[in-house]
Every structure is written in C-alpha cells, then in structure tokens.
Amino acid sequence: MKRALVVGLTGGIGSGKSAVSAAFEKRGVPVIDTDQIARDLVNPGQPALQEIVAAFGPDCLDRSGALDRSVLRKTVFADPLARTCLEGILHPRIQRAVQEQLAAICAAPYCLVVVPLLAETERLRALMDRILVVDVPERLQVQRVMARDGVDQEHVQRILSAQTTPAQRLELADDVIRNDGSLEELEAGVALLHEKYHSLSC
C-alpha cells in the first residue's frame, strides 16, 4: 500500500497554524499536532516529565505535581543551554510519536504534521515530503498574540526574536499560504492546496 504524502505545516507564533490545520482537518485530512504530542509527553507519571524534573528541579512543577509551563518557559527562554537540554529530552520522543502516528495512517492520500518550530528541528523535517509555511506580516502576529495571550508588545517581540525569521522559513517552503486576509480567503487557499496535495499523492 502506498504511504500517505506527508506535509509539514509550520509558521511563526500567531501566524494562524491552528486555523489552517482546522481547515484541512475539516476536509478529512489526518492531522498530527506536535504541540499536543509534547503536552501528552509531560503529563504526570510520564518518563519525560521525570527527566525534566531531574534536569530543572522540582520548581518546574506546580502544587499538583503537573509541569508548570510558565516557569519552564521562562527558564529555557533565558538560557540557551537550558533550551537545548529540554529539546534533548522532548524532541526524540516527539519524533518517535510522529513516526508511530504516520505508520498508523491508512487510506489517506496525504496527511498534515503541524510543527511550530519545524525550521529549527532537522530530525522532524526529514520526515516531511513537503513543507507548507503559513506566512503573515509581523504586525499581525504581534496583534494576534497580544489579543490571544494578554501580553504586551515587548513580550511578543522577544518571542519573535528567538524564533526563525520569516525569510528562513520561506527558504524551506515548498508551498506558502498567506494569512493576512479573511477566513474565506484562507479557506480558499486551503482548498487549492488540498487539490494540489491530492494530485501529488497519486
């Protein structure tokens, strides 16, 4: 049986990856979400959480014993070595989980793997047949994240400066979908890509 074409979906914070993946999912496309995989990996009792506590100390847990993501985020954001350590714990597990989910996909012409930091994650890029980048002007990214997360502009700019630049993401792109218009325009763009990926999978 021919395997499904694997499309990696990526984009910067606030670019609208969730809206794009939802539009594909609505069309019956299997979607693998690496953010959800990462959340599942650090549930209480999971080996990855135990390794994180061993590396970063018990202060990264909340009172219930669950991972305090805000504390850990501040730690890795301020220290590149801490970020590398966390990635060393999570990325191999995320890759294995993605491979397992890809192997379980049957009878689908193509599937979508949502990876926010795909440009920074070579081991996951190697699993993709095509890369789809959601592109959006930075001013819109800032507005969306401020509204969504209740943070100030400086906070969003710090996150953006720590991520791959739009130009670097676009260099990796096989396909680009702009998300600076209406939802109807986004849906139309997804519909065209849906047809394209169907034809490529034949």
Supply the key terms.
12% strand; globular; Rossmann fold; 5 strands; 202 residues
Account of the protein in words:
The chain has 202 residues and is an alpha/beta fold. The chain folds into two domains: 1-30 and 108-202, P-loop containing nucleotide triphosphate hydrolases (Rossmann fold, 3-Layer(aba) Sandwich); 36-104. It is 57% helix and 12% strand. It contains ten helices and five strands. The protein has helices spanning 17-26, 34-41, 47-56, 69-78, 80-104, 122-125, 138-149, 153-162, 166-172, 183-201, and strands at residues 5-10, 31-33, 110-114, 130-135, 175-178. The chain has a five-stranded parallel beta sheet, with helices on both faces. Helix 1 (17-26) packs across helix 10 (183-201), helix 2 (34-41) packs across helix 5 and helix 4 (69-78) crosses helix 5 (80-104). The model has no long low-confidence stretch (mean pLDDT 92).
Number of helices: 10
- CATH-assigned fold name of the largest domain: Rossmann fold
CATH class of the largest domain equals Alpha Beta
Radius of gyration: 18 Å
Shape: globular
Report the portion of residues in β strands: 5-15%
Strand order of the largest sheet: 2-3-1-4-5
- Total domains, how many? 2
User: For this structure, what is the CATH homologous superfamily of the largest domain?
Assistant: P-loop containing nucleotide triphosphate hydrolases
Q: What's the CATH architecture of the largest domain?
A: 3-Layer(aba) Sandwich
Q: What is the ordering of alpha helices and beta strands?
A: EHEHHHHEHEHHHEH
Find the structural class using helix and strand composition.
Answer: alpha/beta
What is the terminal separation in angstroms? 12 Å
